[in-house]
Amino acid sequence: MPEEFGNPWMTNLVQPAAPEAVPWWPPAPGWYVLGAVILVGLAWLGWAVFRRWRANAYRREALQLVGTIVETGAAAELPEVLKRTALSAYPRADVASLSGDAWLGVLDGTLGTTDFTRGGGRPLADLGFWPDGLSSLSEGEKQELLGLARRWIKGHRMERR
Q1: Is residue 76 situated within a structural domain?
Q2: For 8-40, what is each residue's pLDDT tens digit?
Q3: Structural domain total, the chain
């Protein structure tokens, strides 16, 4: 009998079977916790976005009214739209009785600019009293005033109540 190569004790050994692959389902408990945290976070984010959208409804309405003012040319309504917008965002006692330079100062203060008291928003204080309204302004002045009004509506800082 010819000699066999290798260790005779290992001739009857069988290759062990490979273990089964680890299943992807069901996941480990940590994945359930992570999934729950993500769902709660997304629900909170959705609620926060909805609340912000709902809280800014007055801004959307005011911008729509400014668009109507542009179409109709009813300039006397512009100060009223801005005052109503301010009354939606700030306490009535702080803004309802203001007019003239004090009113322009509040608009500047809430936007962080001086465009109302020293810039293109200056005519706003007297606009409601002009018989010709916006037509007494040049086209550039009118566009600057309307643009400034839109910018204030979009960008004023709202006071927390």
Answers
A1: yes
A2: 777 778 888 999 998 888 889 999 999 999 999
A3: 1
